[in-house]
């Protein structure tokens, strides 16, 4: 069965988390993705977590997740003419807004579609800033309301903003690739994706509210998400449970689940906003009852009672969650013949032309000789 994107040739010349994630979606659906890497390798090769059994630049588990089913070529192993041929024959070239020197020298004419994913785009007041995920979260106002009421906000870790930007860029790229296939595009096009602008999806309602009202809500603390209550992630006897209780029927079923009948029909607790304002009364009892049950037990009982509960696994529990196993949420990235690591699989599925689940991770420069042949 032919993969959905088997005819596409894609080059990544920057290797940021954002461009790598964008290209990963293409590679997992069959596109021929070629990483044009500097001699030291892409930046993702030096991002943790690292596998202790391997040496740099082949030991990054993050790199392994982002680069299954891709080919690695060293830019300096190819001549300027060979690079130029690759660039002009590719359907899509990905970069982070800056073109590496060897690529610049080979950039005789623009590729069919160039897609730049940068922190703040090439225009605007932040265009010269050196970006980071934490900085983007601060600028999009997400940090402001996360954490305890007193003290500084909590800063999310990881690469969430870059992953969201990579997916945003992927959607745009596919639209233009389809336009070329249909004959609606004949001239070369340069697409730009700003990581900051992509991350505004996290705070779009708050931004619009502030624009319309000028109101800046105060930070209300952990597990406080007005107007819904109770809502948040709470510890159980073993494991953690995500709780969302909004409608009257959900509240009544939730109280039955935790043997909180004294609260069930009390007029003070019949609307979400009333429960939010009375959370200091509800939450201590709820926490006590949650600790009497396992998260897995409550999840399935809640599911049967139409309560939107979510089991929140720890890192140790993650790979054993039954629905993750059933849905193939994780796959194997093969780093060497003997070393492999479990990584998240594709975020969406096509069934007539299914994706690769996991795959081989190319060593730095592994395909350089193939390009020279």
Fold and architecture overview:
It contains 15 helices and twelve strands. The chain is an alpha/beta fold and 373 residues long. It folds into two domains: 9-202 and 328-372, Rossmann fold; 231-235 and 240-312, formyl-coa transferase, domain 3, CATH 3.30.1540. The strands form three sheets. It has a six-stranded parallel sheet, with helices on both faces. A hairpin with a 4-residue loop joins strand 7 (231-235) and strand 8 (240-244). The protein is elongated.
Q: Which terms summarize this structure?
A:
15% strand; formyl-coa transferase, domain 3; elongated; Rossmann fold; single chain; 373 residues; three-stranded antiparallel β-sheet; six-stranded parallel β-sheet; 2 domains
Strand order of the largest sheet: 3-2-1-4-5-6
- Please give the largest β-sheet: 6 strands, parallel
What's the CATH superfamily of the largest domain, by name?
A: Crotonobetainyl-coa:carnitine coa-transferase, domain 1
SSE order:
EHEHEHEHEHHEHHEEHHHHHEHEEEH
Distance between the termini: 28 Å
Tell me the β content. 15-25%
User: What's the rounded overall pLDDT mean?
Assistant: 93
Q: Can you count the helices? A: 15
CATH architecture of the largest domain: 3-Layer(aba) Sandwich
Number of domains: 2
Whole-angstrom Rg: 24 Å
Q: Low-confidence parts lasting 5 or more residues at pLDDT below 50?
A: none
Shape: elongated
Instruction: Tell me the structural class.
Output: alpha/beta
Strands, count: 12
Proportion in helices: 25-40%
Q: Assembly type of the shown chains?
A: single chain
- The fold-level CATH name of the largest domain is Rossmann fold
The top level CATH class name of the largest domain: Alpha Beta
